[in-house]
Design goal:
By secondary structure, this protein is α+β, with helices and mostly antiparallel strands. Helix content is about 20%, strand content about 20%. Strands 1-2-4-3 form a four-stranded antiparallel β-sheet, with helices on one face. The protein has a four-stranded antiparallel β-sheet with strand order 5-6-8-7.
Length: about 240
């Protein structure tokens, strides 16, 4: 399958976007809420067959709105949610709004929102007016792994700088690309058995976030869930990525 071609206008935001933890007390204006809602309905899924329910509602306890994401809690479903919401995350940044991924309380459905049949609450993206600098000044302000720790092909470093800078839960950066004869196998880091179970789900959402950045950096690639038995210690294979023919 082809990875969806995302709006290239989003690409510059990969290099300046940051998590916002301080939001202004005045909150969003009605036109900003409606603009965010319109963007929410235009997100491209990575796996169209995977159910995803995204609900935009005001937060009763803070001057923010939130997108609560529901899915079927499968590997592909969680990746799909990350891929979709990262498009929104980048778009909000370009609109001058701040956002914050929030995965605590995973599995505890928000009150007042009815999840579709077979779906469960996965995580949340908070949205608000930033009360701190919205953008990073340069790539040096990112705290990220060196490229060799996310890919074994040094020639790929420049085109995949956007993937290296992608956000992830607890800054784990759980992705790794292993070069193959006809492309790359994408791996996800295994979760330490001592950590809560939901961390693994968050890593899968992170893979979707990383794939959104991959799609912006290298449009038109193919993705297959067949990985040919590829293995890497401490990781499990998720997909094979191949360049356009």
């Amino acid at each position: 399958m082809k990875i969806p071609v995302l709006d290239p206008v989003l690409a510059p935001a990969m290099f300046t976007r940051k998590s916002i933890r301080k939001f202004a007390a005045e909150g969003l204006k009605s036109e900003q809420v409606e603009a965010a809602r319109a963007r929410l309905t235009a997100l491209a899924p990575l796996f169209p067959g995977q159910p995803a329910q995204l609900e935009l509602t005001p937060d009763a306890k803070a001057p923010v709105w939130r997108v609560d994401a529901f899915g079927d809690d499968s590997l592909l479903g969680n990746i799909n949610i990350g891929f979709m919401l990262q498009q929104l995350d980048l778009r909000l940044h370009q609109m001058g709004l701040g956002s914050l991924w929030f995965g605590m309380g995973l599995g505890l459905a928000p009150r007042g929102i009815a999840a579709g049949e077979g779906l469960r609450y996965i995580l949340r993206l908070k949205i608000g007016v930033p009360d701190e600098p919205l953008a990073r000044g340069n790539a040096g302000e990112f705290d990220r792994k060196p490229f060799a720790e996310i890919c074994d092909d040094g020639a790929f470093a420049q085109p995949l700088e956007g993937l290296r800078l992608a956000p992830s839960a607890m800054n784990a950066q759980p992705w790794f690309l292993q070069k193959q004869a006809d492309g790359y196998v994408l791996f996800c880091q295994k979760t330490n058995a001592l950590l809560p179970q939901h961390i693994d789900r968050m890593h899968q959402v992170d893979i979707g976030i990383g794939l959104a950045h991959f799609a912006l950096a290298l449009p038109g690639w193919d993705l297959s869930t067949e990985t040919g038995g590829a293995a890497r210690k401490g990781y499990y294979a998720v997909a094979t990525l191949r360049p356009p023919a």
